[in-house]
Amino acid sequence: xxxxxxxxxxxxxxxxxxxxxxxxxxxxxxxxxxxxxxxxxxxxxxxxxxxxxxxxxxxxxxxxxxxxxxxxxxxxxxxxxxxxxxxxxxxxxxxxxxxxxxxxxxxxxxxxxxxxxxxxxxxxxxxxxxxxxxxxxxxxxxxxxxxxxxxxxxxxxxxxxxxxxxxxxxxxxxxxxxxxxxxxxxxxxxxxxxxxxxxxxxxxxxxxxxxxxxxxxxxxxxxxxxxxxxxxxxxxxxxxxxxxxxxxxxxxxxxxxxxxxxxxxxxxxxxxxxxxxxxxxxxxxxxxxxxxxxxxxxxxxxxxxxxxxxxxxxxxxxxxxxxxxxxxxxxxxxxxxxxxxxxxxxxxxxxxxxxxxxxxxxxxxxxxxxxxxxxxxxxxxxxxxxxxxxxxxxxxxxxxxxxxxxxxxxxxxxxxxxxxxxxxxxxxxxxxxxxxxxxxxxxxxxxxxxxxxxxxxxxxxxxxxxxxxxxxxxxxxxxxxxxxxxxxxxxxxxxxxxxxxxxxxxxxxxxxxxxxxx
Length: 518
Hints:
Blueprint: H1 12-15, H2 54-60, E1 80-86, E2 88-90, E3 96-99, E4 102-105, E5 109-118, E6 120-124, E7 130-142, E8 148-152, E9 155-160, E10 165-170, E11 180-184, E12 187-192, E13 195-200, E14 204-208, E15 211-223, E16 228-230, E17 233-245, E18 250-252, E19 262-265, E20 269-274, E21 279-281, E22 284-287, E23 291-296, E24 301-303, E25 306-318, E26 323-325, E27 327-339, E28 344-346, E29 364-376, E30 381-383, E31 386-389, E32 393-397, E33 407-409, E34 413-415, E35 419-424, E36 430-431, E37 440-443, E38 452-457, E39 462-467, E40 474-478, E41 487-492, E42 495-500, E43 510-511
Parallel strand pairs: 1-5, 4-6, 5-7, 6-8, 7-9, 7-10, 8-11, 9-12, 10-13, 11-14, 12-15, 13-15, 14-16, 15-17, 16-18, 17-19, 17-20, 18-21, 19-22, 20-23, 21-24, 22-25, 23-25, 24-26, 25-27, 26-28, 27-29, 28-30, 29-31, 29-32, 30-33, 31-34, 32-35, 36-43
Antiparallel strand pairs: 1-2, 3-4, 35-40, 37-40, 38-39, 38-41, 41-42
């Protein structure tokens, strides 16, 4: 059966690599339940979509297309009713059977569920079927497994009727065939303008073994393990999500295909608390829009291959390491990171327990645009390979301990654009390379939380001013206003220190090979 692909409004240079939509008709059990499911015939690069920033589109183009069931692919007028009633249910649709407390849907169509059920809803439709479950004041509870289990179909959508309140509660098991409160062995889309509260005290909240897409709804998930998991891909395009997870909040973990296993957040509002990672992608993590607040016990955002932030508002309020991947590209958006270890860490290529020691192991941290603010107890910007900055605005309030640095790389730091300030300890302080195209300065100066750091040129003109958030002993600064070999003054609470741009401060690490084991 032809598939519906998630619309991407790509720049024209990349649009040609993306497939167009195609018409699809889902067969139903009876004429009254016929669901005409027609995908948009326009190319994926739709003018009605918010354009995807080029840095994000470049990475997404290398991944497999995600599947979504848009709301215009089916009609609520075709819906047949399933009335949930305690430990049983009733329906006139031929595609619905009820056995005890189990409701089974065996045919394509649109099904409107309302009422309360202590039991399970099962979708076991043909492999070419589109099944839409419209939750309209539905409460489904199962204390011995998943509450909604999609066994088979082509695509399944869970649509939250406008102004409706829906609840799904389960106790699933990681060892069971269906290991989430809502579990699909198919592509799964969640949409609509209603609300959905999902609780699973045994394992995951909402999980798909294929693609999982969220394109609407007010969704609250409280899960013993992962809150949202799409094995092939997890895409959030719209909606308001509040996620509490014992494991990862948003996860994609396909290991068999390098073009899958990615997480893409393109819009919506996400507030997540996680016992592990906030975002965890087996391959790529792409943030191009939305608003995202993460409080995590491990990484805020983690991916194994490429991590791109090209838009959106990101606030990582608690993390061990804030942003981590082998290839990190900050190309837009506004990000705030608080971490108990490294703020942004490009690592992962080395298999050494010590993170590769001091050698350059090929990781990359590239900053070309956006606003990034870091408050790190470990290294602020850290790369086991290189750090390259060509634009954007970066402020690092780095460590107070001397065994870490506000800037730390194994392969060197080059700056050719943007504004960079790194305020931290002095023991491992690193500066950009002498070969950097843009001027920079470094000063061994000290202060404490609330101290004012001011940088002036030889004429006394103020170039920049910052207020420190913690104790510090070093300042590194780069901007287009700094000219190599010229004199500048760094003043902390009225105490002035004159430095020469392009010269490392006494006691610092200089350019490249900074820091110790990761």
